[in-house]
Specification:
- With about 300 residues, the protein is α/β, with parallel strands linked by helices.
- It has twelve helices and nine strands.
- Strands 4, 5, 6, 7, 8 and 9 form a six-stranded mixed sheet that branches. The chain has a three-stranded parallel sheet with strand order 1-2-3, sandwiched between helices.
- It is globular and about 60 Å long.
């Protein structure tokens, strides 16, 4: 578990790990130079449970922190957890059963429940990547492999063999890693069980952060297509230079897509926090800017009927 200024939801996240039905694990928590009470909270839990190993580092960003945590892990199988989400009590037990039934697997994630900042269930996500054929089809279309990072369990050796999480890709570091693992022929799958509660809260609203995440995902997919064509990858700076050289009308269309993606993300956060008028406004903007994408995402990600508990 990487942590950074996560005091608000950290206790619930840690307690959900400690309450697992599978008990025989080491819990590596790496603090990325937090300036709030995060490190103090982690150390209090560590004093009560010997399975917790605390590492305090200077701020280096999520990719560097995750690579540090992988290096500190002493087992081949590593489960990732975020400091603002919660595990279902049987997550580790069920994931270990899944990888035992699929011995060739390198990375597995799961379905997730979406919860609000207050822990209220607001929806669910069911990935299509539950079969090898679906993963192969996604790669064949030149799309990155995306599933929820804090629901992942993976082989440490495979992640290390492809270079781990890459610097400068914070916000998209997970999609990049799964895509590189999958394109090298390793098996990645989503387990069709709801094993994680994924929190949607105010930190997801940043325009700059979401814009950069979307651009980084485009960068991953751009290099995936180059890999399939047998040509070298480009650096992130080279990719941004390619975008800057696009004709004016293409750049306008690209901006429209970026803003459509952002308003869809904003609508989810507004809904999670009960701001119905703001939710309707941001959803209307998303539909106006990217109607096909928005309606497809609504169908895939949210099951509104009966979602509110």
């Amino acid at each position: 578990m990487p942590t950074y200024n996560a005091a608000k939801h950290l206790g619930a996240a840690i307690e959900s790990v400690l309450a697992q039905t599978f008990r025989d694990f080491a819990f590596v928590i790496v603090d990325d130079g937090s300036t709030d009470d995060t490190l103090e909270i982690v150390r209090r839990y560590a004093a009560r449970d010997s399975r917790i190993a605390v590492h305090a580092c200077e701020h280096r960003g999520i990719s560097g922190t995750l690579n540090y945590a992988l290096g500190a892990a002493s087992t081949e199988w590593v489960a990732i957890m975020h400091s603002d989400d919660t595990m279902q009590p049987n997550r580790l037990e069920r994931q270990l059963a899944f990888i035992a039934a699929n011995p060739d697997i390198a990375v597995a994630s799961s379905f997730v429940n979406y919860i609000s900042g207050q822990g209220r269930k607001i929806g669910q996500f069911r990935s299509e990547l539950t079969t090898r054929a679906a993963v192969a089809a996604t790669l064949g279309r030149g799309h990155s492999i995306g599933f929820h990072h804090p629901a992942v369990i993976m082989r440490k050796s495979v992640a290390a063999a492809v270079g781990g999480y890459r610097d400068k890709l914070d916000g998209c570091e997970d999609l990049d890693l799964w895509t590189r693992i999958a394109r090298e022929g390793h098996c990645v799958l989503v387990q069709p069980e709801f094993l994680l509660n994924y929190r949607i809260h105010e930190g997801s609203l940043s325009v700059r952060k979401h814009r950069m995440t979307t651009l980084l995902n485009e960068y991953v997919q751009f290099n995936l297509r180059r890999y399939k064509e047998g040509v070298p990858e480009v650096s992130l700076d080279e990719f941004f230079d390619i975008l800057a050289r696009m004709p004016f009308w293409q750049r306008c269309m690209h901006e429209r897509c970026l803003w459509g993606d952002h308003f869809f993300k904003r609508s989810a956060v507004n809904y999670a926090n009960g701001r119905i008028a703001a939710f309707l406004g941001s959803m209307a903007c998303a539909i106006l800017l990217r109607p096909g994408m928005t309606l497809a995402k609504i169908a895939a990600k949210f099951h509104w009927a009966g979602a509110i508990s």
